[in-house]
Please model this.
Amino acid sequence: MSLAKADINPESAKPDAPRPPNLTRILIVRLSAMGDVIHTLPAVQMLREAFPLAHIGWLIEERWAALLCAPCFARRGPRAIQRPLVDEVHTVNLKVWGQSPFSFSTLQKVATVWNDLRAVRYEVAIDLQGAIRSSLLARCSGVHTVYGAAQPREAPASLWYTRKIIASGRHVIEQNISVTQAVIENYAGNQPDSNSTGRCVRLPRDLEAENGIETRLGELGIESFAILNPGAGWGAKRWPAARYGELARGLADRGIGSIVNYGPGEEELARTVEQTSCGAANVLQCTITELIALTRRARLFVGGDTGPLHLAAALRVPVIGIYGPTDPARNGPFGTRSVVLRSAESLTSHARRVEADQGMLEIGSKEVLAAADRLLEETRR
Model:
């Protein structure tokens, strides 16, 4: 049974109605953020397999472009390991542009993106963000057909969709897939390969970053390691940093080192983990391409609902997810061996509260270490 239902004219659904031509130029719109872009990759990979010769472009915020293309590689042209999934990466910088929207520099950059998008002559745009700005950008790309979820994250966004898809599935990855599946069924005339969702998604491989991470791990004398990620988008999603330090000590007793990953503004969290680990954890700040290279080498990832966790899941690294206010059924690790720890006291909420979630405070380091033992044993088997 189809996972999605297209909002199309019943006349076009008649058996003798001519099927639309196969797609040759497709635009994906998913601007941000890290975890959300990664959640979109399986749907786009399914699209790529259905239309192997199509020119697929992606409109994305500049800061997340490295999830699609290695920084020093061309953003348009033949696909390669440095840009394995899409044929072209279009970038915007909406936050910076919004600071001086009428300056000559901003207008020039907006015009460049506008002209580049329209020059490709995309036939279909698929908005997988569901925001007003993303749906507007999809329409401004010059396409006549814009697909999106019938109930997007921001309700007014649907006003700019010409095809509204009833998204299905609990997990956000499943919901994204259901939208692209409707496109495939309409244009390719066949059901997508259901096994494609279980395949490791294609992320860029930056050879310079790969070699650099290998060198840094060698200098630290680390071979077998877990990545600990104490940061998250807001305070309520963060497990106490000191408990990551306790966890690192327990992992060290099992012969596994710990690398502490952190992002901008999370330096204090990383230092706390390092200090409370009594030398068992090493702090390593990474660019996106370096984090991809580091994660590929990890035996285990431990963290909350945040982009690096979803990156680890996409790379099929075993994951321990420590969840509080966000629902793991929708936003949990997908497609990899995982253990999700969540207290019954945690209530689902996307309110960006700074204070710690009381349910997360009920989860102790011993409980997380026990989960790590189970995952590591499964991996050895």
Summary: The CA atoms of residues 45 and 85 lie 7 Å apart.
